[in-house]
Amino acid sequence: MKQSHDKTVFIWWMFLCSWSLMSLFVFGSGQSLPDLSLRSLSLAAAAAVCFVLYHWFTGFAYREGDLSMTYPLAQTAMLYVPVWGVFLLGERLTFAGGLGILLIVMGAYCIQLRSLSPDELFRPFSQLTNRSVQAALLAGFVYSIGAVLDKTGVDNYSAYHFTYVLVFFMLSFMSLNLVRSRYRGRILKEWSRNRTLILWSGPVMLASFLSFRFGLQLSPVSYAVPVRQVSLLIGVLIGLLFLREPFGRIRLLSSGLILLGVVFIWHG
Questions:
Q1: pTM over cut 0.90
Q2: Which of 23, 46, 197, 205 is the most exposed place for a label (fewest CB within 10 A)?
């Protein structure tokens, strides 16, 4: 996605590719979707709204604000999700698991900061009147709501088929956005520029969707959402090895905190 030209259109192509692959698996095998209750349909639609809003809010925040200020705030979903998990879903956290969540939150928060000084640590919260900061905080909040809806959905319906319906709704909402005149001609242009990247990224995104939701079905959402931040470790390595990005001490320390947090959650 970082190498794409028109990122909004590229993401739409990724979703279209992922959903098309899922459709081939579902209907190419001669199967059909299990009976879908109104409750499961509503959960998938509501979760899709939350995740699309998350992408929209984070996109606005990153475009309008300083990344080192907005990125940490967009990760605040990890603070809300354990609260929703305990009070809404009746989940229970062990001491080691709770400590692991805290370490991952700290690592995800610090990974884009420019220094670990007190002024820098609290700088994102000192700009609460800034629209990009408000968008980043909203992104974290709506994602946490979507995660709870997601967890409820996979607990009551096949994880694979719930993911299929969820991706369909997200793709539909994104398509409504691309109908606007400002995107005229941009869809085919992005395809012609990056069709190879799109065709590779679709299966990768599909693997991410499915592995997370199968994990969500097997574990408390309070643990699953923070542990997903292990992707930040992979992102740092990709940036270092392939994109030649600088690898500062803060990223190294933050990555270590995330990895340590995952170990605590594993043992908890």
A1: no
A2: 23
